[in-house]
Amino acid sequence: EQMRELFNWADHNGHNLICISSQRPSGRHNSLQWLGKHGLGFEEVHFIKGRYKWQKDIDYLVDDSPQNWHAWRKGRGDDHEFILVDAAYNKHIPAKNRIFKLTETWEKVV
Description:
- This protein is an alpha/beta fold.
- It has helices at 2-12, 28-37, 66-76, 105-109; strands spanning 18-21, 44-47, 61-63, 82-85, 97-99.
- The strands form two sheets. It has a three-stranded parallel beta sheet with strand order 3-4-5, covered by helices on one side. It has a two-stranded parallel sheet with strand order 1-2.
- α2 (28-37) links the parallel β1 and β2.
- The longest helix is centred in the first third of the chain and has 11 residues, at 2-12.
- The two termini are 21 Å apart.
C-alpha cells in the first residue's frame, strides 16, 4: 500500500522511481519476480553492490543499511540525498533524513 502511494505521488509530480538492489546474481531473477508479483513496476531496476550505490546518477537513495549510508556519505561528501529507513540496526546512524514509513519519502524530496 505504501509503495502504491509512493508510485502515485511520483507519477503526479514528474519523478521516476528506480529500484537499486544489492542482490547477488543468483537471486536477481527471484527479486524481479517478487517486484512484479507485488505490482512494483519500477521504470528501471539496477543491481549494484551497496558500497557503490552512491555512484549511480540518482537524486535520492532510500535505504536502511548503515554500511550503504557510510559509503554514500564518504562518496558524495554528505548524506543530504540519503533517506534512511528507520530500523533497530541503524538507530546509531546520525542521518539527516530518517523516515519511519515509505510514504514519508516525499516530505524529504519536496
